[in-house]
């Protein structure tokens, strides 16, 4: 009778014992007596699941980013307009009706002998007016009371008229005497008169200038020659 009761009890508890055994085996798999169940699964919050809403469920307010493209376009348009205005102003200043001839009334003129090239002098004309002025052709020089004017070296004629903005300078070189002494009729001048030409060759360009010469004077002979007006000092003395 007791044997029969024992068998029944064993059959009733067999499933539970098997389950406990399985749990014990699983717990020992990591060698520590506990099982690594892995990281806990993230819990999603309602706010994260619903972008654009706050924790209270109300729509989130967002400040719109500045329209960078629009601002960039505006800046570019402003720069373009300023550049165009400058170009228009420059074109207006350079218009024929706004340009005048350079002469003794709107320039400062100096005449200075230079050590190189030998027997040369540099004439410098600086625009002291408020408008563009043109230096046309070449200077017409007269030392003291001489009755002839020196010729201009044709090879020095520039491709365009030398134009001076206010404050800018133009130049002309002067060969005073032949370096080898081949010139004749030499003399020492104490006074120089610089005349300016008009829009056509040998026409009157306006007021003359009388730049001072060195106290000892300037020696010249029949070789006396000038260059055309140049934009650069180097070009004026390169001949």
UniProtKB/TrEMBL annotation:
Q: Where is the composition biased (Low complexity)?
A: 39-51, 85-95
Q: Which InterPro entries match?
A: DUF4232 (IPR025326)
Q: Which UniProt keywords apply?
A: Signal
The keyword Signal is annotated on this UniProt entry = yes
The biased composition feature labelled Basic and acidic residues covers 66-84
Domain (DUF4232) spans 102-230
| Chain segments carrying region Disordered | 32-111
Which residues, if any, are the signal sequence? 1-27
Protein name (Swiss-Prot/TrEMBL): DUF4232 domain-containing protein
